[in-house]
Amino acid sequence: MVGDGGTGGIRTFAINQPSSDILTAPIIIVGGGPVGLMLALFLDRHMVQSVVFNEYHVTRWHPKGSTHNSRTMEHYRRLGISEKVRGLGLPQDHPTDVAYFTRFTEWELARLRMPSELEQQQRVAASSTTDQVPEPIHRANQMYVERLLLEHAQTRSNITLRFGCRVVEFRENAENVHVLAESDSPGGSEAWQAQFLVGCDGSQSFVRRALGIRYEGYETLQQAFHGGRMLATYFRAPSLSQEFMGNRRAWQYWAVNPEVRTALIALNGNDEFLMFSKPADPSLAPDDAAIARIVQRCAGAEIPVTMLGHRPWTAGVALVAERFGAGRVLLAGDAVHLSTPVGGFGMNTGIDDAANLSWKLAAMIQGWGEPHLLSTYEKERKPIAKRNTVAARQLAQQYGAINIPTTIEEHTAAGETARREVGAFLATFGEQFASIGVQLGSRYDESPIIIPDGTPPTDDFTRYTPSSVPGGRAPHLWMDHGRGMGSSLFDHFGVGFTLLRLGPRIAETTRFETAASERGVPLRVLDVTAPWARDLYERNLILIRPDQHIAWLGDDSPVDPDQVLARVVGR
């Protein structure tokens, strides 16, 4: 167990500009990656303004994660962009299988069958009323989706984008956070003031280090593959798909043989790929020609390869920050948790951070949040960060257990036996690509703003059990025979809290609604009389938070609804 060092404290500076030259925004977000942009978009949904600073002028140019899990897709749906996200990445009919080969021109050892985007949408169209996955997992590289998020943010009047502008210093007082940013534009520097600052600035987070907050956990994992120093290579190889993968298409291709072990991710279903390899000498800079030869050895053919870029990374990491912020400065995404990319948990956990934090910041800005509301962000999200980073590490450890016999490429009985045994082992890896329990099963049972009632389901990485016990995601159901936008129960939740009234006998909630109005707590009352809805939730009244987690339930309105509301907004 290790931890990295911070710089030991908040850096301070003097603002020399006149007060009239100091720019203001309720929220300053440092980092314009997917977590920072999603936080800004969630805040915009709550009608809260923010400014997003990003060191670079453009979004990511190098591929990273390609998994947008079911919960993340639900978040995109809330913002009205899930259909656009589904248009990115692989062609609609491209399978999302994971296929293992000795070499891409030789034997196929195992194949984990997974549906294409078209097949997934057909399954949704035919799903049962109480199906729990309205938004199936989607494979599209993060670099494509970041561009879409940025384009969408550019249309929102509540979001100010300062790409190419780097936050270099900040200081906090009892009422505000003051920020100094630098850019290469005329003028050079900007002074800003906000009520809160959120660092979404990645694993080398300037904000986290300035706060003196360290990571804790596992720095690496020493094993033959998906352990230690790794290299992610972005390349173009038109003939790989066109000549060799025509009837063997997959989303992820593995080469498994005594000479080389790599994983390739299909980015566009045509000519662009991302390859994970383990360099023989991590201290040396990547050599394009040497990396191209690795691709050719994986293919088993001298195919043309054009290198587009390399990015080193560390496999087996499972790190979580000591704290998720200090005072008016908070952290989200990779700035507070780092996981190995197996399972695709990293970015998705960060977007769930943003969903949790955004409504709490909105509550504080708009005046309906109680003083302790923001402290529940760390209480709720830190256990999830630990859970997900450890889950990814455990999945990565499976790869260290692959034994590759020297006979695996032989045209002999021994070779056939080796391929059969290795293939049987690889066929057990399916859950790293599903893990529906990780995707939908996050719970906040120990949170002080959750009013407990009942026994929550057991946490299971591989299985999601819908439950109305407060703390978990609200169970899903379809409201009509359609399966498009407007058909999901989630489509009818309010931007703020939602009070579900279920069953044929509609409970009286006038005092509850009055208490919310007097507190300024945004509340939508939603009546669902279908018997299967009451059967699914098992109570007449369900109070659902803005992030779609259940806060309270009962068969009748509480004796003191103001007391309930005060607790769920942070008293």
What would you say this structure looks like, in words?
This protein is of the alpha/beta class. It has 3 domains: about 25-90 and about 140-220 and about 320-345, FAD/NAD(P)-binding domain (3-Layer(bba) Sandwich), CATH 3.50.50; about 90-135 and about 230-315 and about 405-435, D-Amino Acid Oxidase, subunit A, domain 2 (D-Amino Acid Oxidase, Chain A, domain 2, 2-Layer Sandwich); about 445-570, Glutaredoxin. It is about 30% helix and about 20% strand. It contains 15 helices and 26 strands. The strands form 6 sheets. A 7-stranded mixed sheet has the order 6-5-15-16-17-14-18. A 6-stranded mixed sheet has the order 8-3-2-12-21-20. Helix 1 packs parallel to helix 5, helix 1 (about 35-45) packs parallel to helix 9 and helix 9 packs antiparallel against helix 10. The chain is globular.
Count of domain modules: 3
Strand portion = 15-25%
Question: What is the CATH architecture term of the largest domain?
Answer: 3-Layer(bba) Sandwich
Radius of gyration: 25 Å
Short description:
The protein has 571 residues and is an alpha/beta fold.
Topology:
Layout: E1 23-24, E2 27-30, H1 34-45, E3 50-54, E4 67-68, H2 70-78, H3 82-86, E5 98-101, E6 108-112, H4 117-125, E7 138-139, H5 142-153, E8 159-163, E9 165-172, E10 177-183, E11 189-194, E12 196-199, H6 206-211, E13 215-218, E14 228-236, H7 238-244, E15 252-256, E16 261-266, E17 272-277, H8 288-299, E18 306-315, E19 318-321, E20 325-326, E21 329-331, E22 337-339, H9 345-366, H10 375-400, H11 413-426, H12 436-440, E23 497-502, H13 510-519, E24 523-528, H14 531-537, E25 541-544, E26 550-554, H15 561-568
Parallel strand pairs: 1-11, 2-3, 2-12, 3-8, 5-15, 12-21, 23-24
Antiparallel strand pairs: 4-7, 5-6, 9-10, 10-11, 13-19, 14-17, 14-18, 15-16, 16-17, 19-22, 20-21, 23-25, 25-26
Helix pairs in contact: 1-5, 1-9, 9-10
